Amino acid sequence: MFQVRIHGRGGQGVVTAAELLAQSAFDEKRFAQAFPSFGSERTGAPVVAFCRISDSEIRVREPIMIPDALIIQDSTLLKQVDVFAGLQHDGYALINSTRSFEELGIAEIADGHPRFITVPATAMAMEHLGRPVPNAVLLGAFAALTQVISLHSVTDAINEKFKPKIAASNCAAATAAYEYVLAMVPTHA
Amino acid sequence: MLRQVEGSKAVADTVAACRPQVICAYPISPQTHIVEGLSQLVKNGTLENCEFINVESEFAAMSVAIGSSATGARTYTATASQGLLYMVEAVYNASGLGLPIVMTVANRAIGAPINIWNDHSDSMSQRDSGWIQIYAETNQEAADLHVQAFKIAEELSLPVMVCMDGFILTHAYERVDIPEQDQVDKFLPPFKPRQILDPSNPVSIGAMVGPEAFTEVKYMAHKKTQLALEVIPQTAHEFQEIFGRSSGGLIRGYKLDGAETVVIALGSVLGTIKDVVDEMVAADIAIGVLGIIAFRPFPTDAVRAALSHAKRVIVLEKAFQVGIGGIVIENVRASLRGTETKDYTLIAGLGGRPITKQSLRQYLDQACVDSVEELTFLDLDQELADSEIVREGGK
Q1: Which residues 47-76 of A have a C-beta within 8 angstroms of B?
Q2: Which residues of B touch A (CB under 8 A)?
Q3: Whether the predicted model's global pTM rises above the 0.90 cut
Q4: How distant, in Å, are the alpha carbons of A8, A50, A71, A168, B248 from that of A15?
Q5: What is the pLDDT of residues B317-335, one digit of tens each?
């Protein structure tokens, strides 16, 4: 089972990201479970959503405490929330930022985790969608980084979820992020 | 059709396939998505011949449901938490009048203190209301139980509450095989009401009954409700024949063969429990699980048979009765009468506290060697609670 925890803020499509990820896995004929951390839903408030992907039925209902991968949609959370809680040495972290680990103040923890990367997802979203919504972009990057799901499944899920025009720009953004990450970490390809 | 779908959406689509004629509800989270989905299906014409009635409160929701069901319409509503409590007076009337209304309860805690999260306090408070109560373990089962609920309700002319864990199931986005319309039509015939309020053939229902007959009416309700102990498994069997999957029934055992310890629970926590029990069985611990699907009427005999070889039972409950302890355990004890089986109550998941595999495993390891208290609150911050009790002047 592969467990993903997504951190972001209300309005950034955190829950949608978890659902798209689950849909991508479903499209690959696998089992998936996506769910939000339940609480007050306010724009800008820290939000967490979870996604489990497995080749067999998923029965467990606890929140994901030991994630295999983290997607951090908003780097301002790094100083506010213990986003790295439970992440193992070989865990993935995908951080939406244009800044370096040093500038983000996470050089020390990133040093112990070889699978940390930053992706300028908001900039990519602005370029392709004209809106600062980084969720689908980061799923393209996630596919490249972890190889747990294919880019094709991500774009399929985006096409199923959104209306054609929004889907097309999100798919373009996700594909750009996928290629960006592949170029960055060719060893993962 | 197999889909990756939110639990609430799966239930909305399934209820629509049951061809309800009247749906009324006052939105309360977390069931809001269910009636929101249904309102869209009515508005866009997918669900035909159905009147969606916006009401001003939960009390009105159940009152309208009573009225429409009494005129012979297949009637559905949904609620949770304070909303259920607000409709309670009408809830008792629905069962007393023998009206086969189906209602989803998206289980949630009850205040005060205000808490929007999941536990079973709401539906458990209605265990004596005369409604049949069935609890879903997964979103697949939640969908399937709604199809079965209409059949059970109409066969017995009794209302059925389908309980599904709020947020944990309603907001989980997972794989569900949504019952197909042709299969639902084959399984669930059109509603043939036992009694109809009809101006051309006037009758009174719900007339006053004095002391000379009230006991008899209650006795008859008890006997009628007990018929569900046969109708529920029979309905699950018929469901399996048409849909090809097992859903519903009274109880569901897991790894009970040779189990000295049996963990009993209701609802979605059974999944987490099964994962923990698998790990324990792999470590040669003789432990199994008993899921209770039908809580009202309580399947006393079926539970007794399932526990006949158990040395101890642990009842995990997401609600409790202040001043005594567990609710489900008291029902289970009726099944244990005359046996030497030990019983323990584990209160867990109150007000949405996550029930983790780690905490469960720690507790169960202790429980399997009888070194737990009769009543335990999982992950209780004992120090905090004790200091607050002292601060308030208690002991």
Answers
A1: 58-63, 65
A2: 3-4, 6, 30, 116-118, 167-168, 171-175, 268-272, 274-275, 352, 354-357
A3: yes
A4: 9, 8, 12, 20, 30
A5: 999 999 999 999 999 999 9
